[in-house]
Amino acid sequence: MLEPNTPVAPHPDIAHLAPLLGTWRGSGSGEYPTIDSFDYLEEVHFGHVGRPFLTYRQRTRSADGSRPMHAETGYLRAIGGDRVELILAHPTGITEICEGKLVTENDGLRIELDSTSIGRSSTAKSVTALGRTFELAGNTLGYTLRMAAVEQPLQHHLAATLHREN
C-alpha cells in the first residue's frame, strides 16, 4: 500500500499512534546463544494512508554500512482502547503477528507486544516466539526484541536506539 504524495490526516482510530509517524535512524546491537554478537545501523519508517493503521518498514545494515542485514515490513493496527497488533513479513520466510498493550506516557508511549502467531516457510529457521517493546520519548525511539528460535527459549536478541529524522 503506497503512502499518498500529499499529507493525509491520521485516521481518528490511530491518533494515539501518530507520534510514531516518520523516519527513525540509529544503531543497535544483537546477541543470541547460537551466533556471535553484532552491531548494526537501522532505519525504521512509520507511515499512514488515512486508514486505521500505520505502515511499518524496517531495514538494517552492518555497523560499517557495507552490507544489508535484515528487513521487515508490515502494519501496526490499533484494535480498540489500549490494544495494538503488529503484523510483519520477514524476507527470511517468517511472518509474525504480535498483539499487546499501548501505554501513553507524558511525552511519549510504550508498546509491549508478544507473538500470537509465527508462520514459517519450509526453508525458514525455526522461530517459535517473538516479543517486542517500543518506547518513544520525545524524538528518541528505543526498542528491544526477544526471540525463541532454534531450540532456545524466549530471550533477549536485539536492542536499538533511533532518533527521528527531520
Automatic annotation (TrEMBL):
Principal EC category:
isomerase
Gene3D superfamilies cross-referenced by the UniProt entry: 2.40.128.20
Superkingdom field: Bacteria
The cofactor named in the record is:
heme b
Q: Where is this motif: GXWXGXG?
A: 22-28
Q: What InterPro entries does the record tag this protein with?
A: Calycin, Nb(III)_bact/plant, Nitrobindin, PeroxynitIsom, THAP4-like_heme-bd
Query: According to the UniProt entry, what is the EC number of this protein?
Result: 5.99.-.-
A GO molecular function assigned to this protein is:
peroxynitrite isomerase activity
Q: Which UniProt keywords apply?
A: Heme, Iron, Isomerase, Metal-binding
What does it catalyze? peroxynitrite = nitrate
Domain remark from Swiss-Prot or TrEMBL? Forms a 10-stranded antiparallel beta-barrel structure able to accommodate a hydrophobic ligand in its interior. In fact, this fold hosts the heme group, which is located in a wide surface cleft.
Q: What does this protein do?
A: Heme-binding protein able to scavenge peroxynitrite and to protect free L-tyrosine against peroxynitrite-mediated nitration, by acting as a peroxynitrite isomerase that converts peroxynitrite to nitrate. Therefore, this protein likely plays a role in peroxynitrite sensing and in the detoxification of reactive nitrogen and oxygen species (RNS and ROS, respectively). Is able to bind nitric oxide (NO) in vitro, but may act as a sensor of peroxynitrite levels in vivo.
Please report the name of this protein according to its UniProt entry: Peroxynitrite isomerase
